[in-house]
Write a structure and sequence with these properties.
Low-confidence stretches: none
Order of helices and strands: HHH
Number of domains: 1
Structural class: mainly alpha
Helix content: over 70%
Shape: elongated
Largest sheet: none
Mean pLDDT: 91
Length: 89
C-alpha cells in the first residue's frame, strides 16, 4: 500500500465527513444568525438563548437528512470494503 493510496483514502474520508456534517452545521449557523439578529433587535443579551433552538435545529437536520447521510456513509464503507484486496497487496 503506497503513500498515494493512503492519501486518497484520507482525502475521501475527510470529504465524506465534511459532506455529512454540512447540513447540521449549516442549519445551526442559520438558526444562530436568526437568533443573533433577534437579540440585536430586541437588545436581549442572554447567551443561553441560542442553545435550545440550535440543538433542536440539529436534531431536525438529523431527522430530515438522516437517510441521505446513511446512504453516503454506506457508499463510502462499501467502496472501502470492495477495494480492501488492493489495499493489502
Amino acid at each position: 500500500m503506497g503513500q498515494g493510496l493512503i492519501i486518497d483514502i484520507a482525502r475521501e474520508a475527510l470529504y465524506t465527513v465534511i459532506l455529512l456534517a454540512m447540513p447540521m452545521l449549516g442549519l445551526a449557523l442559520l438558526v444562530g444568525l436568526v437568533i443573533s439578529i433577534f437579540q440585536a433587535t430586541t437588545q436581549i443579551q442572554e447567551p443561553t438563548l441560542t442553545f435550545i433552538p440550535k440543538i433542536l435545529a440539529v436534531i431536525f437536520a438529523i431527522i430530515v437528512f438522516g437517510p441521505w447521510m446513511l446512504n453516503v456513509l454506506m457508499d463510502f464503507t462499501y467502496r472501502i470494503f470492495n477495494n480492501i484486496n488492493g489495499f493489502i497487496f
